[in-house]
Amino acid sequence: MKSLSNNLIEQLLTFISPLALEKALIAVSVFLLFWLLAKLFYRKVLSWLLHMSNKSKSKWDDRIFTALGKPLQVLIILIGLYLALDILLNSVSQEQLLLKIFRSSLVAILGWVLYRLSASTSILSQEAQERWNIDSILIPLLSKALHFLIIALVIIIIAGEWGFDVNGFIAGLGLGGLALALAAKDMLANLFGGIVIILEKPFIIGDWISIPGVEGTVESISFRSTGIRTFEQSLVTVPNSTLVTQAITNYSRMGKRKISFNLGLSYHTSKEQIESVINKLKQMLRDHPGVDPETILVNFESFGESSLNVFLYFFTKTTVWAEYLLIKEELNLKIIEILEEEGVEIPFPSRNLYLLNTEETKS
């Protein structure tokens, strides 16, 4: 038994030559060195860079350092692993295989960096939003499109590195996209409708809008649908493809808000009283701070069935619903006060019926 174990040890020592053992120790040392450098970079150098960037006025540097931190750490370890394996390998074919793996890994790390920089919360996305006035809702879509493009490019470059035919892959992406477009026609219609809404901005979140059958406040806008909170507090989800084909009334875009109505005066009102009431109403509207003075119309318009109709037409400066109602209340009370001052009554709708006595007529 001893002789057998001794023979195995002798054969193992013969196989592991001093040169091979030396190369293995060097390779392990190189890898450990780069691994320690990666740890040192991430814990010390990157922390110092982030600390210094926080003191600067620029908002670019700290975000970029954060995005590059992990990929650079992995890159340093990858370089160490490549150098360590290159020391151990002897044949040219093995070295070429290792080089392909290393190049593919570099492409993947570069794609990782670009992927992180193109995130919707990245500094580049925020800078693009501010510089080109891109709607905040559009940023996630652009970010996802860039992510898809980056992943596709990484796959194509790595496939080309390994000798695969990338032309067939690209053609397959085109045919797959066409099949997807045909299968998801309604979804794409809503998507393009959402893009139109975001770019043209017929309304934004918080606007009070009205479309056929729905009226309320816009609560959410996505690429598939728009959420409208009605005044009954129910949430109506409207597909974007429907919104872009219908007339939209945006009440929040009003510069001012209209008030118009007929004020009925009793038929017992004299001509002088009517003129005095009209003049006082005009002056009251001009003096009210909530009424727009540019357009104020107060006129004796018509003879109604049971009243003399004075037509009032003017605008409030505010478009806010609650403030608008408060102004209407103040004006209505002022109108009652003016009518009381002039001794003018507002009549109830009434009719006079005359009954003919047929017996007296015969006699």
UniProtKB/TrEMBL annotation:
The domain of life is Bacteria
User: Tell me, which GO biological process terms does this entry list?
Assistant: transmembrane transport
Specify the Mechanosensitive ion channel MscS C-terminal domain's residue ranges: 260-346
Q: Where is the Mechanosensitive ion channel transmembrane helices 2/3 domain?
A: 146-185
Signal peptide feature range: none
Keyword list (alphabetical) reads: Cell membrane, Membrane, Transmembrane, Transmembrane helix
Annotated Gene Ontology cellular components are:
plasma membrane
Where in the cell?
Cell membrane
List residues traversing the bilayer.
20-42, 63-85, 97-115, 136-160, 166-184
Record Gene3D superfamilies:
1.10.287.1260, 2.30.30.60, 3.30.70.100
Which residue ranges does the record assign to the Mechanosensitive ion channel MscS domain? 186-253
- Which membrane topology describes this protein? Multi-pass membrane protein
Family of the protein in this entry = Belongs to the MscS (TC 1.A.23) family.
Task: Please give the name of this protein.
Answer: Mechanosensitive ion channel family protein
Recite the lineage of the species. Answer: Bacteria, Bacillati, Bacillota, Clostridia, Eubacteriales
